[in-house]
Amino acid sequence: KYLDVMVELKLPMHKVRGFATNTAKYQPLGVQCPWEHQPGYSRNNYCLPSSPGIQEHKNHACCKDPCKLLDAWDPGNNEHNYAALLTSLATEKF
Q1: What are phi and psi of 84, to 5 degrees?
Q2: Residue 44's beta-bridge partner residues?
């Protein structure tokens, strides 16, 4: 939704240098996961239940999920993964 609003505003995206994320006291910094593309989605599938390697991946440090976001199909289980998701979506939109 946030990126859709930015598209509607017709901002000069070539001048945008980045996005600020503030997940303080919400999610730990964590470890960024390797990117595993899932066709039809712009999210990282690495830690999600639909990942072909989920049995191996779920014990990876990047899949630690203290807020239980992965159960809701939210790949932003830590700040690094959230920022990677935001970057992927912004690249797609702009």
Answers
A1: -65, -40
A2: 37
Give the total residue count for the chain: 94
Q: Model confidence over 57-71: pLDDT tens digits?
A: 999 999 999 889 999
* pTM listed for this prediction: 0.77
Residues 6+ apart with CB under 8 A from 70: 47, 48, 49, 63, 77
Buried b or exposed e, range 21-56, using 16+ CB within 10 angstroms: eeeeeebeebebbeebeeeeeebbbbbbeebeebee
- Residue 11's CB is within 10 A of a number of other CB atoms, namely 12
Least confident of 14-23, 70-79, 81-90: 14-23
pLDDT of residue 35: 93
